[in-house]
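Example complex used in Figure S2.
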Amino acid sequence: MREVAVVGVGVTKVAEHWERSLRDLFVEASLKAAEDAGISLRDLDAVYVANMSSGYLQGQEHLGSLMSTWLGVSGIAACKVEAACASGGVAFHQGFLAVASGLYDYVLIGGVEKMSDAITPDILSALIMADDQEYVASTGATFVGLNALVYRAYMEKYKVKQEDIALLAVHDHAYAVNNPYAQFRNEITLEQVLSSPLVADPIHLLESSPTGDGAAAIILAPLEKVKRCNDVVIEVAASRVAVDHLSLNEREDITTMTATIRAAREAYKMAKIDAKDVDVVEMHDAFTALGIINLEDLGFAEKGKGALMVKEGEIEKGGRKPTNLFGGLKARGHPVGATGLYQIVEIVWQLRGQAGKSQVEGAEIGLAQNIGGVGSTVSVNILRRVR
Amino acid sequence: MREVAVVGVGVTKVAEHWERSLRDLFVEASLKAAEDAGISLRDLDAVYVANMSSGYLQGQEHLGSLMSTWLGVSGIAACKVEAACASGGVAFHQGFLAVASGLYDYVLIGGVEKMSDAITPDILSALIMADDQEYVASTGATFVGLNALVYRAYMEKYKVKQEDIALLAVHDHAYAVNNPYAQFRNEITLEQVLSSPLVADPIHLLESSPTGDGAAAIILAPLEKVKRCNDVVIEVAASRVAVDHLSLNEREDITTMTATIRAAREAYKMAKIDAKDVDVVEMHDAFTALGIINLEDLGFAEKGKGALMVKEGEIEKGGRKPTNLFGGLKARGHPVGATGLYQIVEIVWQLRGQAGKSQVEGAEIGLAQNIGGVGSTVSVNILRRVR
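Predicted assembly (774 residues):
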């Protein structure tokens, strides 16, 4: 396999972009990534578009050709990759394979999702398509409702209190203040979180990632092509994807996401590192309890001890395992198909020393974990600064 | 790049499968492919699912995890690939890259689409999502309507008569008679085609591919793994994808599909062959005129002479360039996301000598061309018998 480097990144602000369409957001992020890479979009050999719900919410499929057209780069290879909320991380994996194979040199992976324009019932319908329509959605379950089952089972099994789990939302908001691209740049208190309305018992509104619009883009190239430059070089040290049984009722234990364990184990092996070597993390905390479970399943805490990491400051900028320092899904926002790519862009900023007030000093190895469904698909991508 | 081989193929019959769901069809095709390959599904490292409209028509996304679950192979990598009607051929390309990269050994690419259950207005809505929702679909254009523009422009530019173009539908039906997996196994006459209702002037009903349900699956592996066996070995000699401007109004000439020319040129180069070296062809004749244009753009006929190839018997089994010998999109059927994989399976049967009454004697090199939108995305995959 050819070694692969990240050479350019770009994002839009996550927001309710009422006056901008899917293509507008995608093009903005892509142009930024190309400028960052110092290349023209015409240098691209392939485009991967990560998106979950454009067919259902915008009446638009075929985003590969559409976005390539609007980037002005017809003639290249392009397609859409979908894996529910993990579409971004999984599309990154496909772009990685495309460059690693040797067939393509410059590959752009762009994620985009637009949810603001849709009415709430349609958004709920779109999100539950991440689970089994025939056996789960048909019962009337919502996506947040399924996560509520996980939350309650986790509290009961490990005797963890909700006020400790909910702290993760406070953490996310505290860091989003410094992220100009975040959807919510305001601090919140634990009291506010716990007194916000229940959206699916026991999940409070302020423990849930919001709906929003956004796009993120990343350009990959062969490592050998960029080693000649004098700038910082960011290598893709590992890229792995794992799926679990789609639905919770098919799993032995819903308080552990085995797809995370599997993808992380394979990624650590591929990068020739251990969990302890990771300097900075972006993980998929669509709901607070899921974020706590991620900290454990990624190997950063023992089972049942994830919330303690948050409480004891271990995921803060100066902590043992700095995590979600741009606001996480709760406060940076969660434009579904784009989220996994926002995470990777944020890791790149950290490794390049471009993370501003969220900068982790000397960060060399960063990990991004992206989840589709309730732990049904997980991507783990590990980046390393090689100079 | 590692060399890649096709080691297993399987399909369902294309039909109106009223009592079977997406997953039923996908699993049937996949089990057949695994049996054909002589492996267990548990040997798979990754699954790619090709599909266009499951979100809109079945309320189901996240087919990567869903299908892996139903195949009983959780833990592996999986995702959905979408490129409108080219989803199958483009997903094959991703599977090819996955094996070529060296990261995965056994990769299953399965395409599935289910259209029978949906009402006609929803099918029309789903299909026009292949073109631009904001600038084209919004005018009220239908997908067949856009193809009608191409048909008429082609007839006028090259002074070709409709009765010559429509012969392609007669050809397709004549060969589908021998294909047990074809949707329509009855012969039709040119008179029947030309007297069938107009669905979008000048396109007659019997010149249009039908709606239907079906699944096709292919298993790839490194060529080095299968070379030890004594059986016939089928190599992926080339796999290329190209996109054009999404919509017809953005192109200089709508009677030539430049994405086909581009993908074919790159594929011939990759396989180190010329168009004349291709022994057997499956091409995307969603409408008769598009099929005629394909014959030209693939390099088999001069512009304006494609219909003459059909009329003079050159695409027959014993002709110069045997094409669509299993019924093509018109008679084998066109279950959108699966079509590109049906084509490749049919090429594999030819190269293995398993094509029954449609067998082209001594076929060594086969080409499959799959189109998304009106020539907006084109994949060209070339297979070669290496023993």
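Chain B touches chain A through 66 residues (CB under 8 Å). The mean pLDDT of chain B is 97.
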